[in-house]
Amino acid sequence: QMTQEQCSHRNNVQSSDKPQIYKVGIYGWRKRCLYFFVLLLMILILINLALTIWILKVMNFTIVSTTSALM
């Protein structure tokens, strides 16, 4: 069990320190890696969309079905 003296000393140690300032966010190499991965993901999405549209055009897919051509 702690005495009153120890409790007050413990509180004084914590309060006498200057308040700590926590940086919120990502800094340094982690930030660069995050930006790199986001950029890479955006490039892959654009390539994927471009290839999808190109395949749809090359294969002559249309919204209206052309089943009448088979008859």
TrEMBL record:
Which positions make up the signal peptide? none
Name of the protein this chain belongs to = Sarcoglycan zeta
Q: Where in the cell is it found?
A: Cell membrane, Sarcolemma; Cytoplasm, Cytoskeleton
Any one GO CC term of the record: sarcoglycan complex
Q: Which family does it belong to?
A: Belongs to the sarcoglycan beta/delta/gamma/zeta family.
Under the heading Pfam families, the entry gives: Sarcoglycan_1
Which GO terms of type biological process are on file?
cardiac muscle tissue development; heart contraction
Q: Which organism is it from?
A: Periophthalmus magnuspinnatus
Provide this UniProt record's keywords sorted from A to Z: Cell membrane, Cytoplasm, Cytoskeleton, Disulfide bond, Glycoprotein, Membrane, Signal-anchor, Transmembrane, Transmembrane helix
InterPro entries membership? Sarcoglycan, Sarcoglycan_gamma/delta/zeta
Q: How the protein sits in the membrane?
A: Single-pass type II membrane protein
